[in-house]
Structure formats: structure tokens, C-alpha cells
């Protein structure tokens, strides 16, 4: 139930307002002075305040600024016996939700209260979501206790509060973007934008436009000015994933940003000043790339101010059970299944797998297993064949590999209700490959 605080030294009017508002289902607290109002705010934590402008111990317009500074989510509606344009303008500048005249605007009070409460509820929801996002991408959300991970974790926590450029190194799927977001959220830029782009996903021209923006007419199809990610991330953080894939021409433009804090849009001649933190990541050996003239040495030293190497999953096997339990819980919840975990045999198989795709591969394997499993614990049969290992002698005499593959594809097709795109995703193969195997095995 939403809480309303009424501040007015006219007791009769205050009591009348309180009765009307209570009839609408709100909880109401009354007070006749600003001094007691401050105490009521601390104790009751109201959502909306109805406040008279003229009070014995102060002015409602100034009070609005004080409250909004400390409690920005609280909405304040000011009441006055005499309309004053100057007061009204200042009240809105100070953050008042509205400014109404007693008597003349009485019929507006309840509708205004409802609108103010809607705004408060929306602000609370946004705050909760921001809190959840912050927790999701905080250092505390990173799962594992292995020495290799905690060493990387310790370095990231040390560099986070600074503005230093960070270079995250490691194989694909080791969680470089999660680390980048955690560094951003633990920095002084946490309330600002965190934007990310994969440098390997776009052509040179598209990547240049995405990062630096362009002016209208810069190229065919550029019908209006476009703001690039560098500019959008101003005061925040820009994460450049797979930086080793960036074209040399773009590397020189990025170098200028790091050296001067300035860049030029595609098709423009005017420099734009920005204050942006760069976090870059790569799975390549940039020093080898430098030798092959594929990466600028000067850019490497600018990016390599603070390098952190994230360990592959095979070097932190003690973390695998924790990650497995987390993913089982996550996907069981999404699929409404009552799964308690994995069998001891599966746990052993998962810990002995090489995990070339690292955490990303493990996540996909568990998602697939959760979909396939029909018992309380994930069993060996729900794992991909390469993780199940060599077939037992009994299985080998009963099935050849082609027969088992056909059976498995058929089972996944049934689970996906015949959706071939989803089947290909679950099997982690291309759609063309799936169609070829369906035709080869005569699956219907």
C-alpha cells in the first residue's frame, strides 16, 4: 500500500485531505511543520508528499529541493493558498511533481496523487532492475574459487576504480565481457554507459561507422548524422571485443582517441572531444600479430597499460562443479524442470573434458542436457557423444556410430517439435549440416 505524507499547518484542511486520500486506499501520515515532516520521512518512508508552501518553520519550495536531493524517488505536490508564478516555476525547478492552488484545484488532488504514485512505482522498478543488473555484472557474480581465477579477479578489482585502459587476454568463452562489465560497475563510471562491440563481427566500413559515427552523405545510404559508440559512451566505458580483428586504419583512429581523447566522424573534418574508458579483449597473441604487421605496436602499448589474462576452463577444473550447478539451476528454472543437479558419473565426465569453448561451451552443454533429461539428475545419456566418451562394449555391439547419431538427431528433433533451426542450435551444428544428415539418415 502506497504511503502519503500531508504537511499543512491548517489542521481542518489537513484532516479533510487525509480522509479523502484514505478512501482511495492510501496510507496517510499527517504533520503540521517541516521539522516533524523530516522525522516522518525517515520513519514512514512516504512515496508522495502533499506539502503546503507557507509553513510556520519554512517554505515548501525550499523543502522540495532538500527532500529531492536526499530522496529523489519521493514525489512532492505543493499546495498554496495564493498562486504565484515565480514560486511555481522555482518549485518545478526544485523537482516538485506539481504545484496547485488550494480550493480551486481540489478536484485535481486525487488524480495527481495517482499519477505521482505511478511515477514512484516506475522509478522503484527501474532501481530494482538496475540493482539486479549491477549484481549480475559485479565481481561477486563471477563464479569460482580456483587460484587462476582469483588471481585475475584480484587484478581486476585493483584496476577497476582507476581510469586505466585494460586489456583482457584469454581464449574464446572465458568470460572476458563479464569481467569488463564487472570492472565498469566497480568504477567511478558505474552510473554511466557500458557499451560493447565485437570487432570481428563487422566489415571495416561498418565497424568504423559503428565506433566513430558518420556525417550525413559520408557514403551511400548515410542519409543522416549517426552518433558512434565512442561518443555514446562518453563518461562511461567502451568494450572492444576481439580487438585483434580490427583493421589497421581503424587502429590508428583508436590510437588517437587513447592519446588525445579526440576522434573524427566518418565524412567530417571536425574533432570531437570525449572522456571514455577503453577496455579491450582478444584471444590472439598481439605481439605475434605485431611481427606479422597485423597490429600496431604503438596501439598495443597503449592498450596494454593493464593486462589481465583469464584462465581457460581446463586450468580451473575445481570451478566446474560450481558452474555446472549454477547452469543446471538456471536452465531448469527456465524450462520448469525439477532438476537437482548432475549424477556423479556426469560430474566426472565434465571435469575430464578439454572444454575448448570454455564457459560458453559448458553453458551450451548443460542447457542441452537439461532439455533432454527426464530424471532428477542429468545422466550420461543427455551429454553430447564427445563428452560421453568411448562407448561400452555392450553399446558398441548394439549400435554403430551412425545409428546412434541418427537416433540422437531424431530425439532432439522430437524435443524441438520439428523445429530444425532450434534442433541445429541444440546439436551445435549448422542448419545445412542438419538438413544433410536428415536426408542421409532418412529421418522423418
Q: What does this 3D model show about the protein?
A:
- Mean pLDDT is 88; it is low at 390-398.
- α3 packs parallel to α4.
- The radius of gyration is 30 Å and the shape is extended.
- The two termini are 57 Å apart.
- The strands form six sheets. A five-stranded parallel beta sheet has the order 2-1-3-6-7, sandwiched between helices.
- It has 444 residues and is an alpha/beta fold.
- β1 (3-7), α1 (11-23) and β2 form a beta-alpha-beta unit.
- The protein has helices spanning 11-23, 34-44, 60-70, 85-93, 109-136, 147-159, 176-185, 204-212, 229-232, 248-260, 286-291, 297-303, 320-334, 344-352, 358-372, 385-388, 393-398, 401-415, 420-427, 431-441, and strands at 3-7, 27-31, 48-52, 54-55, 58-59, 75-80, 98-101, 166-169, 194-198, 213-214, 226-227, 237-241, 262-264, 271-273, 277-282, 306-309, 341-342, 377-378.
Largest sheet strand order = 2-1-3-6-7
CATH homologous superfamily designation of the largest domain: P-loop containing nucleotide triphosphate hydrolases
Oligomer class: single chain
- Low-pLDDT stretches are 390-398
Number of domains as seen in the coordinates: 3
Strand content: 15-25%
Mean pLDDT: 88
Helix run count: 20
Label the structural class: alpha/beta
Name the CATH class of the largest domain.
Answer: Alpha Beta
Radius of gyration: 30 Å
* Helix percent band: 40-55%
Overall strand count: 18
Q: How far apart, in Å, are the first and last alpha carbons?
A: 57 Å
Report the CATH architecture of the largest domain: 3-Layer(aba) Sandwich
Largest sheet: 5 strands, parallel
CATH domain topology of the largest domain: Rossmann fold
Q: Given the C-alpha coordinates, what overall shape results?
A: extended
Amino acid at each position: 500500500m502506497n504511503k502519503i505524507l500531508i504537511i499543512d499547518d491548517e489542521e481542518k484542511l489537513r484532516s479533510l485531505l487525509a480522509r479523502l486520500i484514505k478512501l482511495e486506499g492510501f496510507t496517510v501520515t499527517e504533520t503540521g511543520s517541516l521539522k516533524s515532516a523530516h522525522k516522518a520521512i525517515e520513519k514512514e518512508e512516504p512515496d508522495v508528499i502533499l506539502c503546503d508552501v507557507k509553513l510556520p518553520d519554512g517554505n515548501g519550495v525550499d523543502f522540495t529541493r532538500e527532500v529531492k536531493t536526499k530522496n529523489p524517488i519521493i514525489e512532492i505536490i505543493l499546495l498554496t493558498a495564493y498562486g504565484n508564478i515565480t514560486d511555481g516555476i522555482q518549485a518545478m525547478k526544485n523537482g516538485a511533481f506539481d504545484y496547485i492552488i488550494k480550493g480551486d484545484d481540489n478536484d485535481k488532488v486525487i488524480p495527481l496523487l495517482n499519477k505521482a504514485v505511478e511515477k514512484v512505482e516506475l522509478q522503484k522498478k527501474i532501481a530494482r532492475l538496475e540493482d539486479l543488473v549491477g549484481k549480475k555484472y559485479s565481481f561477486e557474480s563471477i563464479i569460482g574459487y580456483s587460484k587462476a581465477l582469483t588471481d585475475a579477479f584480484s587484478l581486476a578489482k585493483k584496476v577497476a576504480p582507476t581510469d586505466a585502459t585494460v586489456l583482457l587476454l584469454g581464449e574464446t568463452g572465458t568470460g572476458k565481457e563479464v569481467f569488463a562489465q564487472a570492472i565498469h560497475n566497480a568504477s567511478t563510471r558505474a552510473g554511466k554507459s557500458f557499451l560493447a562491440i565485437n570487432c570481428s563481427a563487422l566489415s571495416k566500413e561498418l565497424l568504423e561507422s559503428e565506433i566513430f559515427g558518420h556525417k550525413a552523405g559520408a557514403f551511400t545510404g548515410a542519409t543522416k548524422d549517426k552518433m558512434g559508440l565512442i561518443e555514446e559512451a562518453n563518461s562511461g566505458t567502451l568494450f572492444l571485443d576481439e580487438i585483434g580483428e580490427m583493421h589497421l586504419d581503424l587502429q590508428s583512429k583508436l590510437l588517437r582517441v587513447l592519446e588525445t581523447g579526440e576522434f573524427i566522424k566518418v565524412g567530417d573534418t571536425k574533432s570531437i572531444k570525449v572522456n571514455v574508458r577503453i577496455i579491450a579483449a582478444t584471444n590472439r597473441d598481439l605481439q605475434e600479430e605485431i611481427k606479422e604487421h597485423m597490429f600496431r605496436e604503438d596501439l598495443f602499448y597503449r592498450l596494454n597499460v593493464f593486462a589481465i589474462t583469464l584462465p581457460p576452463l581446463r586450468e580451473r577444473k575445481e570451478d566446474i562443479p560450481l558452474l555446472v550447478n549454477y547452469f543446471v539451476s538456471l536452465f531448469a528454472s527456465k524450462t520448469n524442470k525439477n532438476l537437482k543437479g548432475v549424477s556423479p558419473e556426469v560430474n566426472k565426465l565434465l571435469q575430464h573434458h578439454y572444454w575448448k569453448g570454455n564457459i560458453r561451451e559448458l553453458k551450451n552443454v548443460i542447457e542441452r542436457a537439461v532439455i533432454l533429461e527426464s530424471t532428477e539428475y542429468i545422466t550420461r545419456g543427455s551429454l553430447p557423444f564427445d563428452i560421453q566418451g568411448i562407448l561400452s562394449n555392450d553399446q558398441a555391439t548394439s549400435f554403430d556410430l551412425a545409428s546412434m547419431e541418427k537416433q540422437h538427431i531424431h530425439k532432439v528433433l522430437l524435443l524441438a517439435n520439428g523445429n530444425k533451426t532450434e534442433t541445429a542450435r541444440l546439436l551445435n551444428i549448422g542448419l545445412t549440416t542438419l538438413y544433410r544428415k536428415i536426408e542421409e539418415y532418412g529421418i522423418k
